What does this fold into?
Amino acid sequence: MRVFKNLLFFIILFFILAGMSDKIEKKLMDNDSFVRERNKSIYRILREPENSIDVLVVGDSLSYCSVSPMELWNDHGMAAYVCGQSGQKIQEAFHMLKTVFRTQAPRLVILETDVLFKNQTGIEGIKNVLGEWVNYHLPLIREHDIWKVFLTGKRYSGENYKGFRFRSLVNPYERGKYMVETREKQQIPDMVRVYMDGIVELCERNGTELLLLSTPSPDNYDYPKHNSIEEYAEKHMIGYLDMNLKLNEIGINWKTDSLDQGDHLNFSGAQKVTGYLGQYLKNKYDLPDHRGENFYRSWEEEAQKYHKKAEKCLKKIKKKDNQND
It folds into this structure.
């Protein structure tokens, strides 16, 4: 009898929290200044007009430092959105996609592959699984400290260029060649494979193509990782683009394009990466050009603001490069 009462208590508690979470989620969609920068994309993507996003990018900080949706818009009229998070785990990527599919029907999902090699063993892996399940179903738990915002009046400002973040610092990468060909493989953790299989299934169920993308990052990529990702992609018959093997074609210059000595790209690098990616997507996928459509008029307005910001950012990068000479 006691077990039944305890079970009933937790069921009632869950539904109470779920109802409160729904209200909190709607509140945060209206005003994401209540949300820390890491989680803003969760709520911002939900307020995009339904079925307006054709390309959805998920991943950790490499995603939002490397792929600029407004560059894809300016060059090809692609409607893309980056739902990256700093240190995003594979469980977060999976639930981010579930969130997006509630209101969007992207033709293509791009997964930045650095999430595939984050430690997911033992207790840590179990905590990630349970924690992200709770966060998805009960956003109130994820934003558990939101009461501080209401009490103190504190706000978290942040730019919104469809999930991309400008970076103008220049710290060159100087350690030389890092993609040394080998047959060795760095194994993808079992827990990650389980969720990666779930992402593949989720995309298939929603009629969405999936592309694995490794953006240029000497700190995070090498050939053993490339081999494992390539093997997984071939097994599941999904696309894989490793930009670390195409640095010359992309035009990466580690003297000017590195934000922090080989971890992330700055805006100069992101612009080159996105330029290459845009042409790749145009050639490989059937993606519409929305420029000139009334439904996407707000994108044209945001593109103008983005262009001004981009010019200022590139000037800062050039100035810092000249100072380093």
